Amino acid sequence: MQKINNFRLFILSFSILAIFSCSKKSIHGNLPDANIVSLLNIGKDDKKNVAKILGQPTFEGSLGDNSFYYVGTISTKTAFLNAKLQEQYILELNFDKSNILRKVYIYDENQTIDVAMSSLETKTKGQKDSFLRQLMGNLGVPMGKSGPYIGSGKADD
């Protein structure tokens, strides 16, 4: 009886060790190092210089917001479980109307909100091709050539 309990304990310990040793850290986005950000000169650098120093932003402001945003996240994923956000930082650089850097803000994950994605889909015109129709539509088309669709970007369309 003692051997069975020891075997169960061994299997349980091994399983727990196997699951938690598979933790993987993922870094996503483009968040510049603090030393590089310190090279920026507020009131002097323009958008071109900022892009040269920090690289292209993750996204730019829209609707009159003249800003660059650099977003970076660090998450961990254990085995088959969903990834868990560990850290998130957003660097916001505000520019004036003449594209000169005026303000720098840094946000962390505590200053952000989650935005729920809509499950709705936009309907498109035309017919929905089935897998079989897509497969049959490519028969007789030489490899490397465009398919039977107009506007594929080839010069001979």
Number of strand elements: 5
What is the beta-strand fraction? 15-25%
Quaternary structure: single chain
Percentage of residues assigned to helices? 10-25%
Query: Any idea what the radius of gyration is?
Result: 26 Å
Major β-sheet profile: 5 strands, antiparallel
| Helix count, DSSP H or I runs of 4 or more residues | 4
SS-derived structural category:
alpha+beta
**Shape category:** flat
N-to-C span: 78 Å
N-to-C SSE string, H for helix and E for strand: HEHHEEEEH
- Taking all residues together, what is the mean pLDDT? 79
As residue ranges, the low-confidence spans are: none
Summarize the structure.
With 157 residues, this protein is of the alpha+beta class.
Descriptive account of the structure:
With 157 residues, the chain is α+β, with helices and mostly antiparallel strands. The chain has a domain at 22-113. The chain has four helices and five strands, in the order H-E-H-H-E-E-E-E-H. It has helices at residues 2-20, 34-37, 47-54, 131-137, and strands at residues 24-29, 59-60, 67-77, 84-95, 101-108. Strands 1, 2, 3, 4 and 5 form a five-stranded antiparallel beta sheet that branches. The N and C termini lie far apart (78 Å). The mean pLDDT is 79.
Quick tags:
single chain; 157 residues; alpha+beta; 5-stranded antiparallel beta sheet; 4 helices
Question: Topology, pairings included?
Answer:
Blueprint: H1 2-20, E1 24-29, H2 34-37, H3 47-54, E2 59-60, E3 67-77, E4 84-95, E5 101-108, H4 131-137
Antiparallel strand pairs: 1-3, 2-3, 3-4, 4-5
